[in-house]
Write a structure and sequence with these properties.
Cytidine_deaminase-like, DUF1893_TM1506-like, seven-stranded mixed sheet, 6 helices, Hyp_TM1506, alpha/beta, 163 residues, catalytic activity
């Protein structure tokens, strides 16, 4: 995750959530987090940026976040990261519910019943991995397990394509 503060983005301007939203919608980013003059941004897909932050022992306390898509899985990860607010152009009802249950302000462009997978023919696999989970720590374990399964499946698929 790159830090705009380290890249000299400088002065805070306006509301943190609005700034994060502008950074996200400005293109090329999947996540933007702002706290005063600090900005964190990522172009990585899915929950990767959130898992990276958690893996590095970081949190987002005090930050306002704009994330491309928020379903239940990322919402449970945000419960661990503790930002003050999360905006997403697309957010699931369960995602919004989980955020609010953990004291995180939730807002979105479109509230949907569920997040679809990339093929748009079923539920997002990360969200499916936490369908019956409400505890953020248990969710983290389920999401890591799902990520490992998906990495193995993708590696096998890529290997078969190269043959």
């Amino acid at each position: 995750m790159s830090s705009a503060a380290e890249q000299g983005s400088g002065e805070p301007r306006g509301d943190d959530l609005e700034r994060a939203r502008e950074l996200l919608l400005g293109g090329g980013r999947t996540l933007a987090a702002v706290c005063g003059d600090q900005s964190l941004m990522s172009g990585a897909r899915g929950v990767r940026p959130l898992l990276s932050l958690i893996g590095e022992g970081k949190d987002l306390e005090g930050f306002s976040v704009a994330d491309k898509v928020v379903g239940k899985a990322p919402a449970l990860l945000y419960a661990t990261l503790r930002p003050k607010a999360v905006y997403a152009p697309v957010m699931s009802k369960d995602g919004a519910r989980v955020l609010r249950a953990h004291g995180i302000q939730a807002s979105c462009g479109e509230l949907v019943p569920r997040i679809l997978n990339r093929g748009r023919d079923g539920q997002c696999p990360m969200d499916a991995s936490v369908n019956d989970v409400e505890d953020p720590q248990s969710a983290l374990e389920a999401i890591w397990a799902c990520a490992r399964r998906m990495a193995v499946a993708n590696a096998a698929r890529d290997s078969a394509v190269r043959r």
